[in-house]
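Today's session is about reading a structure prediction critically. Students often jump straight to the picture, but the first step is always the sequence itself: look for stretches that repeat, for charged clusters, for runs of hydrophobic residues. Only then move on to the predicted structure, which in these notes is written as discrete structure tokens rather than atom positions. Here is the chain we will use throughout the hour.
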Amino acid sequence: MNAPVSPTDPLVLFMPSGKRGRFPVGTPLLDAARSLGVYVESVCGGRATCGRCQIEVQEGNFAKHKIVSSNDHISAKGPKEERYERVRGLPEHRRLSCSATVQGDLVIDVPQDTVINAQVVRKAAVDRHIERNAAVQLCYVEVEEPDMHKPLGDLDRLKAALEKDWGWKDLLIAPHLIPQLQKILRTKLPDQPEVSEGKWGVTAVVHRDMESARPFIIALYPGLKNEAYGIACDIGSTTIAMHLVSLLSGRIAASSGTSNPQIRFGEDLMSRVSYVMMNPDGREAMTKAVREAVNTLIGNVCAEGGVDRHDIFDCVFVANPIMHHLFLGIDPTELGQAPFALAVSGALQFWAHEIDIDVSRGARLYTLPCIAGHVGADAAGATLSEGPYRQDKMMLLVDVGTNAEIVLGNSTRVVAASSPTGPAFEGAEISSGQRAAPGAIERVRIDPETLEPKYRVIGTERWSDEEGFEEAAAATGVTGICGSAIIEVVAEMYLSGIITEDGVIDGDLSARTPRIIPNGRTFSYLVREGREGAPRITVTQNDIRAIQLAKAALYAGVKLLMEKQGIDHVDTIRFAGAFGSFIDPKYAMVLGLIPDCDLAEVKAVGNASGTGALMALLNRDHRREIEREVMRIEKIETALEPHFQQLFIDAMALPNKVDPFPKLAEQVKLPPRKAASEDGSPADTAPRRRSREERAARRGRA
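Below is the predicted structure for this chain, in token form.
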């Protein structure tokens, strides 16, 4: 590799990265890849025993790149590669880049799906390629056996071998390994590759996150160890989601989720803070509960992926600020009152066992930084995933939950805020509301002429007006309305004229349809009549008001950030979070949950927070990236903004009292505006309506 490069040397192009360079004939392809910064894994240090460095030669004339690539331009298989193929097997067309050398121009494909030892891959959680630069590296070395003429300790000889073969200098070692060191070095494994005479073959697991930090030996194994795993975990107030990932291949071995057991201490974040304040052991109880849930989830994904949990060496976590503090054992009381002070806002690193996470004894744990008092590491993860700061378009990123987190910006400037939406979008505070589960109504349509509804429930693809629906839904029943359907049914009620722009059910329509039924001084809309013990499902005036309060809080937060940016529209909108994945953008806009935008530019991005955690797990450069960007994000506290209340009041209307929605109007026929009082009679006066909305605003902020 030290030979001078000539313009006539072979040109090598690596895909899918597109990186290229010229290399002298005889250069190992692994060395060529590394010199260009192309990630090709190798555990054995070029001994052709681990099989991690597999590549494929692409044959043909690549005119765009001015390369004619051929298998004739790569060296023939040597004894080491032939032995590997004979003993372990090598897929057709695959070569080991540590043994194969450059003989001519080449286009080399680095497979992104290489899984050694037939590990089962259950599901792919993301559809993007994440460049790998993990903090964990497996390094196989052969350590000189002790010599009476060279009185150097076993650890020192191990370090010398790691420096010679891998270039590691100034290594530290996890304290728990020192008592085990000599036994590990002297253990011979019969099924491992042959080790040179007078040598001990071992695999060191080396962890280094920041370049400025000293690397650590965090685990040590006799012989060749060929796999290392990590977990990326998003701790939400309602659910905990986790990916189990091969740190070497980048493949996701398993993904799973579970309910956050802290729900029993409080449905929303503030109620959990109150529980801590009112119960001396409240913080400890919630910390224990969430850590036990994380450990159970680790067991679940390991069982699904066929992985030993003690092969997990790196962990990345994201969470909203209160979940972040409770998981780390920090009292969240200060986050329950102004000025909403975080105990720590920057990224953190721990030994995983220090906070009772049951993985490898030497595993490290990293948490992304928090943006502000109620805009947490989960928002930072979503920001890393979607990258508003990486583009010129003005992007609105919204994570809809009990506390909505909002990020708005582009490459020039990014601002962020949180808004107290409450649990209505998750089915709480709704008379027939429930979480998304089999039997819950998830989609609703209302005929504008007959005002008759049709709906679909989780568990069947049939709509309620289709033949066979009742039989298909019999297994689960029709049990309630989940969050996505709450948005749709209120929006459909507005589009069909059942409710006014002020969100009041028009009682005069009871003469047209039996679906409008009296409910005290107000009216309700009947979605499904109860039958055979199943509940009667209605949308009440109070349900609509709860949705209005929630959506107004979110929209007012968005509008405040738009004002801070000095813009009157956004170019693109991204819904993050599990709930966001099921929101129909059209109905979200009809409701006034989000500002007017080209519907083609409104997309759900799933658990973007978890994707950000995954990016930080697989590439430590992403950790530095989000740490740097979080410092640049401007945090806006809605509670301190005097204009927030007026924005909230305007946002109570459907879709909004003052903001036009021209792009939405191109796609949807919005009804003519009419207002009514809450008893369904014609409206009194504007001042009376404004007074009611002001009271709603105060309740929303409280």
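Discussion point for the tutorial: Confidence is low (pLDDT under 50) at residues 115-124, 682-702.
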